[in-house]
Every structure is written in C-alpha cells, then in structure tokens.
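Hey all, quick one. A colleague (J.T.) asked me to put the guanosine-5'-monophosphate job into the tracker so the inputs and the structure tokens live in one place instead of scattered across chat threads. No bug as far as I know, just bookkeeping. Sequence used:
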Amino acid sequence: MTEETIFSRIIKGEIPCDEVYNDSVCLAFRDIQPQAPIHILVIPKKPIESLKDAGPEDKELLGHLLLISSKIASQQGLTNWRTIINTGEEAGQTVFHLHLHIIGGRKLDWPPG
Ligand code: 5GP
C-alpha cells in the first residue's frame, strides 16, 4: 500500500492548502516554498508515488494532469512557464506522491541545477 504523504493529507483536507483548482481527478495548490512568483503543484487524487510508478491504466490521468496544468498556468496569466516532475530522490523528489510543478513569473535558467 502507498504510504501516507503530506499530499494525501492535503487531499483529505487534514492539512490546509492555498487551492487554485480542484476536480474529481486532481487538486492544484500553491507551493509552500515557492521558487518563483508563480509556483503551483498539481497532484492526482489517486496515490501514485512517482511517475515511474504510473502504468498504462494511468494514461488518461497523466494527460489530464498535463492539460490542466497548462490551463492553470494560463489562468494565472503565464505565457511562459516550466512544468516539472521530479522523479526519485536524486532528481529532487521529496514528497512521494506524484506531482507536477508549474513554475513561472520570472526568467528561468537552463540547464537546471
Ligand atoms: P518535490 O521536491 O518532491 O518535487 O516537490 C515537493 C514540493 O512540495 C516542494 O516544492 C515543497 O515546497 C512542497 N511542499 C512540501 N510540503 C508542502 C505543504 O505542506 N504544502 C504545500 N503547499 N507545499 C508543500
């Protein structure tokens, strides 16, 4: 069974969040430690630990997350932004519930650190 994470507790409403979008499949809220003027996390309500744990049955869910993240970015007034999925500790993943970062509102360097 997937372990409880801070994000599953946010989904259950046990921990508050600054919500920007909510539907039957996903929830989006502002990151508590923003790395840019706009920094939003989009998480599936289904508890998938990492992108590598998603399977063919999650194809529609993954497409939904991407399309919703684009819609949210536009609603936030962004025309340029970055969508990031950190997968695994060495890639910077700290919360093991799949999430997309939407980061924008400033010039973003490449390559990332
Ligand atoms: P990761 O490093 O796993 O890709 O991203 C996890 C993100 O979750 C981090 O950017 C971190 O700031 C954010 N985060 C961790 N705990 C909380 C929380 O309780 N509330 C919110 N809104 N964001 C959180």
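Adding what we noticed when we looked at it: Residues 59-75 form the longest helix (17 residues). The chain has one domain: 6-104.
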